[in-house]
Amino acid sequence: MPIAKRAVSTVLLPPRHAKVMAETDVLVVGGGPAGIGSAMGAAQTGAKVLLVEQYGFLGGCATAGLVLTMASYYTSSNQPLTQPKALTLFPLDHGEGTPIIGGVLSELVERLILANGAVAPSPSTGFMVPFDPEIFKQVTLRMLEEAGVELLFYAFASDALCDNTTIQGVIFETKSGPVVAKAKVIIDCTGDGDVAAYAGAPYEMGRNPDQRVQPMSLMFLLNGFNFEPFKRYVMEHPDQWRGVRGLEALMQKAKNQGELEIPRENILLFGGAHNSEVLVNSTRILNTSGTDVWDLTHATLEGHRQITELTRFLRRYVPGFEQTYVQQSGAIVGTRETRRIIGEYQLTTKDVLQAQKFSDGIALGSYPIDIHNPHGKGTIVKKIKAGQAYEIPLRCLIPKKPENLLVAGRCISGTHGANASYRTIPVCIATGHAAGVCAAIATKNNQTPRTVKATEVQKELLKQKAYLDNKT
């Protein structure tokens, strides 16, 4: 299907007026995992909070993107599970561990489980948390409502209001015309660092030296899966399934028949929150940028083409999938990496792999570095030290400029390699939680986030039951 041609010229737009909302203490832009964490953290610290989201629901990549498994937020012994437990659709190589993220994430997971909307993390899930996207939407709405967070939906951030050194507000496009929201402190939780970029914050994209980002994926959920035939196939072909990935022999057979063309080396599947559901993370869309509308259009079209191809392959070639159908596909294409805002400190690959500690640590991560090849086949996985977790310093949330701005989620300050670990849902919630606390303290004391002492943020995070070391 052809897409619209790229812009080839410019036109000067006429001046316009925008409706100005009343100033709040903390403005959170984006209602994904980082935004939920930020809004909760700021509200629980006593700030008046407004969260603005472009869709009519919360969750971002978790719901609109259909990333329906929270990656493990436990330390890992890196010991494979025993063979009887290997017949699963969850990771096998994690081993027993302890949780290293609490606070907002713990409350969310507990509420999801109570609402029958998630499976508790355990060795049988590889310490991942599969969840139901619709229940996720309802639970997070209740959490923010109880915390007193104000919401505005259907508003897309399009620019920032700044003076020479300070961001003062954000411009949103809405059905009611342009709207300006002003705040003492603003937290960019857009994932792409949109607000920070509008405000002139320096940033990087992609890896060195070619600036290529990880490929995109359009997630989809299959229903009608029969686990028993799949289990029999795995027992008869133990080399063809490794927890969540495999089926190389069947893929090659389909490729020889001209029925499969996706640029992946294997099939990646995850168990769902409900029986008979399987989450498919096997589309791979190359050479696209999540900050380019033409690329996003192409990625979405290519993603749906690959979904059709993959569904046909699974039904025809893989036992247990004969009666499956696409229950749901992502409303947005999944973006692993775009802008990484340059902050007061840039977390590195070495920091992650060596489980580095910092005096201003405000969140922990333990997920491996997981880099999908920007050119096509191949995925690089590098694990951190067994039983360890790395710390993310508060400085990674504070852009070099402007003042009164914080970032949270996958756009925080880090390298391409480090981003491949901290981009997961639990860590995004944790950095959001810390950003919200820092923002609230800054507004309370009439400070800029840059001048807030890390010890004050750490003290409040602990009060809100966050974890700041892996001994908790």
- The number of helical elements comes to 11
Average pLDDT reading: 95
Query: Mind telling me the C-alpha Rg?
Result: 22 Å
Percent of residues in helices comes to: 25-40%
**Structural class category:** alpha+beta
Number of strands: 22
Describe this structure in words.
The protein is an alpha+beta fold and 472 residues long. The protein is 28% helix and 19% strand. It is built from eleven helices and 22 strands. Strands 1, 2, 3, 6, 7, 8, 9 and 22 form an eight-stranded mixed β-sheet that branches. It has a six-stranded antiparallel β-sheet with strand order 12-13-14-15-11-16. A two-stranded antiparallel sheet has the order 4-5. The longest helix has 25 residues, at 293-317. The N and C termini lie far apart (53 Å). The mean pLDDT is 95.
Short description:
This protein has 472 residues and is α+β, with helices and mostly antiparallel strands. It has helices at residues 33-44, 103-114, 133-147, 194-198, 227-236, 248-256, 293-317, 349-353, 416-422, 425-444, 454-463; strands at 19-20, 24-29, 49-52, 69-70, 129-130, 150-152, 156-162, 167-173, 179-188, 203-205, 220-223, 241-242, 245-246, 267-271, 278-280, 325-329, 339-341, 361-365, 369-372, 379-382, 390-393, 405-407.
Compile the SSE list and pairings.
Elements: E1 19-20, E2 24-29, H1 33-44, E3 49-52, E4 69-70, H2 103-114, E5 129-130, H3 133-147, E6 150-152, E7 156-162, E8 167-173, E9 179-188, H4 194-198, E10 203-205, E11 220-223, H5 227-236, E12 241-242, E13 245-246, H6 248-256, E14 267-271, E15 278-280, H7 293-317, E16 325-329, E17 339-341, H8 349-353, E18 361-365, E19 369-372, E20 379-382, E21 390-393, E22 405-407, H9 416-422, H10 425-444, H11 454-463
Parallel strand pairs: 1-9, 2-3, 2-9, 3-6, 9-22
Antiparallel strand pairs: 4-5, 7-8, 8-9, 10-17, 11-15, 11-16, 12-13, 13-14, 14-15, 18-21, 19-20
